[in-house]
User: Fold this.
Amino acid sequence: MKVQTNHLKPGYSLIELGIALGLISMLMLGGFAIIRQITSSNNKSTTENRLRALDTELERYKISVGDYPKDLEELFQAPQGANARKWSGTNLEEKDLEDAWGQRFDYAPNGKGAQPPYDLTSKGAPGSTAPIYSARSQEA
Assistant:
């Protein structure tokens, strides 16, 4: 008489495969979260650097022309008036008028003698309620 034996084939059970896929998924999600955090930090740093460069250009403009521009586009145009020839132009490019998220910086001069002399801010990351201010805008 023949005895039937259940010969199990080598392999993984569905439970083992499910656990392995679950672990791989969790590792991938953790990696994506870290990458997203690094990208966000880089965007903020890029925006702060652009604000510093704009602060510098605005100060150069004031020293050359005698007053701050009415808007940021004036940095790229020849100013009018007696001191116009002193302005040698900006070192910036049009893209430097945007933050790292592609949004235009908000700029508003506050008038002669006001402290701070102008407000220069970024709205920050999309969906964020915390704007990023230029260093010169924070002076009192």
